[in-house]
Design brief:
The structure holds 2 protein chains of 2 kinds.
Chain A lengths: L1 H16 L17 E7 L7 H16 L3 E7 L5 H10 L6 E5 L3 H6 L6 H5 L1 H7 L11 E2 L2 E2 L1 E7 L1 E6 H6 L11 H14 L3 E5 L8 H10 L5 E2 L2 E2 L4 H16 L10 H6 L3 E7 L3 H8 L5 E4 L14 E7 L4 H14 L2 H11 L16 H6 L4 H6 L14 H17 L4 H13 L7
Helix pairs in contact in A: 1-3, 2-14, 9-10, 10-17, 17-18
Chain B lengths: L2 H32 L19 H9 L2 H32 L5 H11 L4 H14 L6 H5 L6 H12 L3 H9 L4 H12 L1 H16 L3 H6 L8 H6 L2 E2 L2 E2 L1 H33 L3
Antiparallel strand pairs in B: 1-2
Helix pairs in contact in B: 1-13, 2-13, 3-7, 3-10, 4-7, 7-10, 8-9, 10-13
The chains are: A alpha/beta, B mainly alpha.
């Protein structure tokens, strides 16, 4: 499946290079006649609450804006880029697309996404009021906002309180540092027949944001400009720490493809992964085990740097009227009303923290769901996930991820594994400048 | 029966039972999981303790499953039919007519089998868009209406058909159309049936092309529906298994109807 997706993406990318649009027109001041815009979203490609909530928001928007009709187009998150590329090549220009953050630079440089400062100017500044301070940074490339952060979350530590008690640990006092995670993981491994700890950073399910969170929490970074640095000291030390967890037995020896299922089945004590799966775990734990949620662990006294998983909205339309319609939809989908729906029904984080204490919006839900608190607290330290530039950006990211996986789960020296991969991957990066 | 031959029989049967279990257990697990409530999804019990229909109910309300099954059936049946028809015409031409470059054409058809659909997918999509075939069953069927596999299978089947019978028909003034439909096709029924089942299953399982071509969920096919229960935030195992159970019923039904011809064909040609 991955190979086929890669192939399809590659073919479309080659075709796109010749068609990258360079036209720029000024966005219309308003909508005066009926207009239809397309909205590509991966939330629409999943059954249940994700689809229902997104469709509900689209319907709310169309009710408020009767001149604008939205054509919703769903595609899974790992295939939505291929879908957008194919439609651009075929002349079916998408107007608005929800893409994952790893595609940020590609969307800005190659897909022709509009810089919102150029398009909306003061309107963007006004719309950004009340957003998490670093919220707009998530979608910035070279100082301009190409992606407006939409559905996103940060890594939190899910805890199986029953396993903690069985191992003689206090689930109300979860590990706060990696040293404590090691201790707790070893206790679980020694005193129970369950698994200790697993970070959702590796495996076929995208977990790069977890890996980057751990690296950045240790003061590391995966690239500086277009120079890869994931094998440099602070970043590599973070991976070496995970390797130490594995060597100690605290790290769960499970299939990385089924980490979520292992936790949902009640067999894993600690699981560091996106808070977007919180609703799923609450449902899975019901009647089976007690679920607790804690902030991600830190390296000693260093503050953590939780990065974002999820997606941003990219305005791709070149038609001035459709640009206006798409911008209005973008604003609506990142409004107080939308984030109230998105957080309470799907489980993503609100980009607008002022709604958390507002009884008109999210307060009743937050009061009833205290498990979101560690996540909200982490928002104050939200650190943008780093995407890679150039046509080989996905391959570079995969090489980095594979190297980190091998460094943690393999037998070789982790520093050497990372160094080797960094040298190879650097050759695929564009030159600085 | 000697001790040695008895041991061989037991070993053979043991291996066959193991193979049958390997094939049947995943299907059994899919059906059983479809009836498990959320709390029992990861249970290793052979039967659910509290069987429920809630997964099926969720599938039928969360996505337009019945509409999707109908769309898929029409698309798969049309694709299978088209592949058989184009395969028959091509195979007849390649085996019964001698023309310059015939062997080259056959080699090119065989080579085209090695080209992954993903390579031609974008040009196909651009062309379909220009022809106004977005969101249509015709658009789903057209790029797969001729398949190298179907041509090669039918060429092999026709090559083994006695030439004398065709020559005798010609001497009786039978035209190509009559020879094909009244003499060859009735005798190739097992091969056509097995090809039909394989083409139907292949079209039934098609994912990427419908994902690209169909923009509305209600016009989409069942494989896209199944994918909707699998997300980056995890799989909804109960509904996914319920949807997979529903999706496998038509294919299972088709096999039940045609199983005699399919087994005959597999036995004769070793086709898999």
């Amino acid at each position: 499946m991955l190979r086929r997706t890669f192939l399809a993406t590659g073919v479309a990318a080659v075709a796109l290079t010749a068609l990258a649009p360079a036209l720029r027109a000024e966005m219309a001041a308003g909508i005066t006649a009926p207009v239809t815009i397309s909205f590509y979203s991966y939330n629409l490609a999943s059954a249940g609450l994700n689809n229902d909530t997104t469709m509900g928001l689209i319907n709310d928007f169309m009710a408020e804006n009767p001149l604008i009709k939205v054509e919703p187009i769903g595609a899974p998150s790992n295939e939505i880029l291929s879908r957008v590329q194919a439609d651009i090549v075929a002349g079916q220009e998408p107007d608005l697309a929800q893409l994952v953050f790893r595609d940020l630079i590609y969307a800005a440089d190659d897909l022709g996404a509009e810089a919102l400062e150029d398009l909306a100017g003061d309107e963007l500044a006004a719309h950004a009021e009340g957003m998490v301070p670093s919220g707009l940074d998530l979608g910035r490339v070279d100082g301009k906002t190409y992606g407006l952060a939409y559905t996103f979350s940060t890594p939190v530590m899910f805890i199986n309180a029953d396993i903690f008690r069985e191992a003689g640990l206090d689930p109300k006092n979860p590990p706060k540092t990696w040293a404590e995670v090691k201790e707790a993981g070893m206790a679980i491994q020694q005193k129970t027949d369950k698994y200790g700890f697993f970070p959702g950073a590796f495996g076929p399910i995208d977990g790069t944001f977890v890996y980057q969170s751990i690296v950045m929490s240790n003061g590391g970074i995966v690239r500086e400009g277009n120079t890869l640095t994931f094998a440099d000291q602070p970043a590599a030390d973070a991976v070496a720490m995970l390797r130490d967890l594995r060597d100690s037995g605290a790290y769960a020896e499970i299939d990385p493809a089924s980490h979520m299922d292992t936790f949902a089945a009640g067999k894993l004590g600690m699981f560091l992964f996106t808070s977007a799966v919180q609703n799923r775990f609450i449902k899975a734990a019901d009647g089976k085990f007690e679920l607790e949620v804690a902030a991600m662990p830190s390296f000693g006294d260093k503050p953590t740097a939780p990065t974002n998983s999820g997606s941003a909205l990219f305005l791709l339309s070149k038609d001035p009227v459709k640009q206006r319609a798409a911008w209005e939809l973008m604003k609506f989908l990142t409004s107080k009303h939308a984030y109230t729906q998105i957080t309470s029904k799907i489980g993503y984080l609100p980009l607008r923290l002022d709604i958390v204490d507002d009884p008109q919006y999210l307060k009743p839900w937050v009061d009833a769901h205290p498990m979101i608190q560690p996540n909200l607290e982490q928002l104050t330290r939200l650190t943008p996930n780093m995407a890679f530039a150039g046509p080989n950006y996905r391959q570079v990211e995969n090489m980095m991820k594979d190297a980190a996986t091998e460094a943690v789960l393999g037998d070789e020296d982790p520093y050497e594994v990372l160094r080797r991969a960094q040298v190879q991957a650097q050759a695929l990066m564009p030159a600085d400048g | 029966m000697t001790t040695r031959s008895r041991a061989t029989t037991v070993a053979t049967h043991g291996a066959m039972i193991l193979l049958v279990l390997t094939a049947v257990v995943p299907v059994y697990w899919m059906i059983v999981t479809a009836f498990r409530p959320e709390i029992e999804i990861f249970s290793l019990r052979l039967l659910p303790q509290q069987p429920t229909l809630e997964n099926f109910a969720f599938v039928l309300t969360a996505i337009p499953m019945l509409k999707m099954l109908g769309n898929t059936f029409v698309m798969a049946a049309a694709t299978a039919l088209a592949q058989i028809l184009t395969g028959l015409f091509a195979a007849y031409a390649l085996t019964c007519w001698r023309f310059p470059g015939g062997k080259v054409v056959q080699s090119l058809i065989a080579l085209s089998w090695l080209v992954p659909f993903q390579v031609t997918m974008i040009p196909n999509y651009v062309l379909s868009t220009k022809l106004g075939l977005l969101n249509t069953t015709t658009g789903l069927v057209l790029p797969n209406a001729a398949a190298a596999f179907a041509v090669l299978v039918l060429v092999n089947a026709m090559k083994s058909f006695p030439r004398q019978v065709i020559e005798a028909a010609r001497m009786d003034d039978a035209g190509h159309w009559r020879i094909l439909w009244e003499i060859i096709v009735p005798n190739l029924r097992p091969a056509i049936a097995s090809l039909g089942v394989l083409a139907f299953i292949s079209a039934w399982n098609e994912y990427f092309w419908p994902l690209l071509l169909i923009r509305k969920i209600e016009d989409s096919v069942v494989q896209i529906g199944l994918q909707m229960f699998m997300t980056q935030e995890g799989n909804q195992w109960g509904p996914l298994m319920a949807a997979a159970t529903l999706a496998s019923l038509p294919v299972f039904g088709l096999y039940l109807v045609l199983h005699r011809q399919v087994i005959d064909s597999f036995m004769k040609s070793g086709l898999k």
